[in-house]
Amino acid sequence: MSSASTTPPSVDKVDGFSRKSVRKAKQKRSQSSSQFRSQGKPIELTPLPLLKDVSAQEQPDLFLKKLQQCCALFDFMDTLSDLKMKEYKRSTLNELVDYVTVSRGYLTEQAYPEVVKMVSYNIFRTLPPSDSNEFDPEEDEPTLEASWPHLQLVYEFFIRFLESQEFQPSIAKKYIDQKFVLQLLELFDSEDPRERDYLKTVLHRIYGKFLGLRAFIRKQINNIFLRFVYETEHFSGVAELLEILGSIINGFALPLKAEHKQFLVKVLIPLHTVKSLSLFHAQLAYCIVQFLEKDPALTEPVIRGLLKFWPKTCSQKEVMYLGELEEILDVIEPTQFVKIQEPLFKQISKCVSSPHFQVAERALYYWNNEYIMSLIEENSNVILPIMFTSLYRISKEHWNPAIVALVYNVLKAFMEMNSPLFDELTSTYKSDRQREKKKEKEREELWKRLEDLELKKSLQSDGIIPT
Amino acid sequence: MAGAEGDDSLYPIAVLIDELRNEDVQLRLNSIKKLSTIALALGVERTRTELLPFLTDTIYDEDEVLLALAEQLGSFTVLVGGPEFVHNLLPPLESLATVEETVVRDKAVESLRKISQEHSPVDLEVHFVPLVKRLASGDWFTSRTSACGLFSVCYPRVSSSVKADIRQHFRTLCSDDTPMVRRAAASKLGEFAKVLELDYVKSDIIPLFTALASDEQDSVRLLAVEAGVSIATLLPQEDLEALVMATLRQAAEDKSWRVRYMVADKFSELQKAVGPEITKTDLVPAFQNLLKDCEAEVRAAAANKVKVFCENLPEDSRETIIMTHILPCVKELVSDTNQHVKSALASVIMSLSTILGKDNTVEHLLPLFLVQLKDECPEVRLNIISNLDCVNEVIGIRQLSQSLLPAIVELAEDAKWRVRLAIIEYMPLLAGQLGVEFFDEKLNSLCMAWLIDHVFAIREAATCNLMKLVEKFGAVWAQNTIVPKVLGMANDSNYLHRMTTLFCINALSEVCGQEITTKHMLPVVLKMSTDQVANVRFNVARSLQKIGPVLDSSALQAEVKPVLEKLATDQDMDVKYFALEAISVLALA
């Protein structure tokens, strides 16, 4: 149009569109659990002597008393209240951590319920609402737990307790039961990554030591995932739970139970559909590969599942899918490969011709993988015809020169692999395209005729044309 | 299944059915969407014997295709031969109701609910109810969740023995092992209760409600709250206390904020359901607690309900309850730490004045309005200002004008342009309430300042605002107060401001009328046709086109036409374009 005669209007300094990164700088959010309903009253704890200062006989009793004291909860959102007592509880917890780590003979049977009670009082709480509605885990800082100075020590103590040599699951299972585990699993939704990290260790220890709880834990994780996939799309601890599952799957006995296979197909595969896949994809792919290494016969359903949920609009996810497929192909058995090569390479052929160069590039990298190359070579009769049209077209049409170069390499590799077939495909390329076009036209005709038909029918049913 | 009978019209159908198997999802989808056409062409007989079995057996497809199929089948009754044959649609819908994808399943359930109405009572018992029972005892949770939505549609029309069976199945689902199923059951509990006989509501539904409301998962408990409201509407007043109130009280104090939030969110419905007496004894204290909840989410949800709750209080004690129980909480919320809470309150607090009357408003509410008008969060102030009309009716706006003015000025200059935009939109309303004198004295300068805002959206809104003000105050007022200022900007050194003059003229010419437009505005527009900035020149052409209809034909011919003709020969192509467009629209060629 034309140039402006004056200087452009000054920029709004504090506009509504401030960048997230700028905004973020000042928010160091922390949050307390939803359990404090202004208690008002200050908390008084009577200081007890140190455990090391009393005789060995008195220690177990004092240990119990200290556990009971640590059940008192403080409001950390109020940074000024109960300062002295907060510090006292902190040092007591520290002392307890040391005590369970080194002392011998402290774990009397009476201690178990008290330990579990203290831990339950401290860690089990309703998680507060997430601060922003559109919390984006990749962009936003997580909300940190305000009571962490105490909470961390409680977790630390609990882990030492579970790992202690004196720890006896047969006694503990009376207190660490299904209800306990259920509440523990709910905490994995905590936004604080430090807490989730501790929870991971705790759950792992419990899974390891309580055989009776294993099936229950797996089932509840199942439910959490299904809810995450089909209902809420929000759960902070998916990556951590998958990490635990990774090692659980590793320990599955062969042949795999139907329950485990169902978990793979009905839960793990659908997890790929979630919007926030990038946050737990590495752990998920690890679980999938673990399954396939256990039982190669699962390859076909897994790959078909991935193909079914293949992302249609999200290129970033497509790149992740391609990465996972490569991991799967790395461990695939040739007999399994033959079963899925056709649908698989139809998808790869689509990816190769994606206008998004990262997707095309990621797919073309398969040809740098020696094992995959050997599989392709063995089956070039099937794969080459599927891939050829896309490759040939991109070599002429793709906007990105790097992609074109990669495609040339792939075409060259195919030519070396199976030159008679390659020549044949090159020579029939044109006529094939023409045939395709003709088919396309026929289809259009068909739809047109159908519309006419529909029109006639509806006129008939309206009684305009007598039947 | 191709149309082998030589009927030519069936040929495309055969191909379409082939397309249902095509590799390309989009083509399959197209084909599925034409399913009714296919069925129509095949006729009812072959649709039943060939098409439906084909769909039931061979469709294992992408969710998108399944969704389209589930939807289509819901309106297929005519195509299979009417109500008599409607049960033929059940098998494909049954398998669709078991798939994983929620959207598909929900659609299948929706279609099943729809066609259930088309079943005869006998068919319902012979075909539909067995399907519901199969789904209810399915292996995977998906079919059991789907089943939950089907009980209420078949229950009213079956025999009493089948009814007992249905109730039994629903009971089982309410205590299902999988939380997903319990959630589905909890969310359908209210709906199911509505179709049950009152005795069974008491004997069956109440225990289920109590159990779900104390489920270990808060996601189940919160759904039970909604069911509780529906159930309460069904019960006679004298049974409420014994059957549901304990559970509802417990929900209002649940340890999970999500459940408490739900109670707050459903509070008005709850209030209606339990009636005035229980409201007085139970809901008032519960509401107070929710307003004082430790979680901001809950407080905000409760604050949103303040108006409706107060309105619906029994008349005899309304004022006392508000003054002694609700108002103290409201006073605290005015200085809440969370801006969403304050903002929710600000959007309803003004309407309390209509309920409390003049004296109470002046004494108790006015101070709160004033505090909120000075709140640090602009949204709170905006919400107060946008509800001024309620107060206006009761005490008149004058009482507030002293505080109103600084608040408006501050919002008008807020750093966020969206806030400025919002306050501009209330200007005409405010002007109407405050009267022309007050406006001229205090607000006029603001309205003019917006015209030179550096955000276009604000300048645009300001222009529109002027038009609305003129509609309110009349052309004479316009001529005296705003037209001179607007026209003065035509000489500004900033071309954006000069353009604003043109935009204002576009907006004002019609409301100001022919005389002002011809005498005052037109000369300015014409003069600007020689502006050095092309953007101004082509906007002159557009303005002339816009104000042309207001002018008389002599002005058009004598003054507008020559200028447009000159612009039509401008160097700049956009100027030319708009000049020619104006010439043709005004028929000056």
TrEMBL record, chain A:
Record Pfam families: B56
Domain of life of the organism encoding this protein: Eukaryota
Annotated region (Disordered), positions in chain: 1-39
Compositional bias of kind Low complexity: 30-39
Biological processes annotated in GO: signal transduction
GO MF annotation: an example: protein phosphatase activator activity
Gene Ontology, cellular component aspect: cytosol; nucleus; protein phosphatase type 2A complex
Basic residues composition-biased segments: 20-29
PANTHER family in the record: SERINE/THREONINE PROTEIN PHOSPHATASE 2A PP2A REGULATORY SUBUNIT B, SERINE_THREONINE-PROTEIN PHOSPHATASE 2A 56 KDA REGULATORY SUBUNIT EPSILON ISOFORM
Family membership: Belongs to the phosphatase 2A regulatory subunit B56 family.
Name used for this protein in its record: Serine/threonine protein phosphatase 2A regulatory subunit
Organismal lineage: Eukaryota, Metazoa, Chordata, Craniata, Vertebrata
From TrEMBL, chain B:
HEAT repeats: 12-50, 89-127, 166-204, 205-243, 244-282, 283-320, 326-364, 365-403, 404-442, 482-520, 521-559, 560-589
Highest taxon above the source species: Eukaryota
Keywords, comma-separated and alphabetical: Repeat
GO molecular function: protein phosphatase regulator activity
InterPro entries: ARM-like, ARM-type_fold, HEAT, HEAT_type_2, PP2A/SF3B1-like_HEAT, PP2A_Regulatory_Subunit_A
Record's GO cellular component terms: cytosol; nucleus; protein phosphatase type 2A complex
Residues annotated as domain Phosphatase PP2A regulatory subunit A/Splicing factor 3B subunit 1-like HEAT repeat: 276-357
Similarity field: Belongs to the phosphatase 2A regulatory subunit A family.
PANTHER family xref list: PROTEIN PHOSPHATASE 2 (FORMERLY 2A), REGULATORY SUBUNIT A, BETA ISOFORM-RELATED, SERINE/THREONINE-PROTEIN PHOSPHATASE PP2A 65 KDA REGULATORY SUBUNIT
Protein name: Serine/threonine-protein phosphatase 2A 65 kDa regulatory subunit A beta isoform
